[in-house]
Write a structure and sequence with these properties.
The protein has 2 domains: 53 residues, no CATH class; 118 residues, Immunoglobulin-like, CATH 2.60.40. By secondary structure, the chain is mainly β. The strands form 3 sheets. Strands 3, 4, 5, 7 and 8 form a 5-stranded antiparallel beta sheet that branches. A 3-stranded antiparallel beta sheet has the order 6-9-10. A two-stranded antiparallel sheet has the order 1-2. It contains 2 helices and 10 strands, in the order E-E-E-E-E-H-E-E-E-E-E-H.
């Protein structure tokens, strides 16, 4: 009776074997593939090579319409990012609030705003604007270009999301709140 050894770099029936018993490198200490990784090349005579699967580009999308409160003093925009690098997004993603570059224009004053990562989600954020008086505004959202290297190596982060609050946004808000 033989038993296959995990970590010896030869693979018969194990899911992966990259030649070690380390966790965090794609093939776990018990020879299972770790989340987000892809392993190839393992055979009875060769070990697996594991790589983190990453997309060609990061996309930022708006999850729903702009939410305005009854007093029209608070605008909430929910957005989603399709992928973040594991080095930034591990655990509760405490570093994620600084990930997005948000620029607000068109309003006659510059509203205060915050960007909040929604804990427990997969890369959902809420952008909250404090409005002194109702105004039409444009919100431009992108990944901070300074994060390109080293966090987003090989991934295009030039995608920009534009969110626009116009007369239709206010008409919808007053209909919802009446
Ligand atoms: Ca390993």
């Amino acid at each position: 009776m033989c038993t296959e050894i995990c970590g010896d770099g030869s693979r018969f029936v194990l899911i992966c074997d990259d030649g070690n018993r380390d966790d965090g490198d794609g093939c776990s200490g018990s020879c299972t593939i770790e989340t987000g990784f892809k392993c190839d090349g393992g055979s009875p005579t060769s070990r697996d090579i594991c790589n983190y699967t990453k997309p060609d580009a990061v996309r930022i999308t708006q999850v729903d319409q702009i939410q305005l409160d009854r007093n029209l003093t608070r605008a909430v925009m929910n957005i989603k990012v399709n992928w973040l690098p594991p080095g930034l997004a591990s655990g509760e993603c405490r570093r994620c609030n600084g990930l997005l570059l948000v620029t607000i224009s068109q309003c006659s004053y510059t509203p205060e705003f915050s960007v909040n990562y929604l804990s427990g989600t997969t890369y959902n954020f809420a952008i909250i604007l404090k409005l002194v008086t109702p105004c039409y505004f444009n919100v431009r959202v992108q990944i901070r270009p300074v994060l390109q290297t080293p966090h987003f190596t090989g991934v295009d982060i030039s995608n920009v999301l534009n969110i626009k609050a116009d007369s239709a946004t206010y008409a919808r808000a007053s209909a919802n709140n009446s």
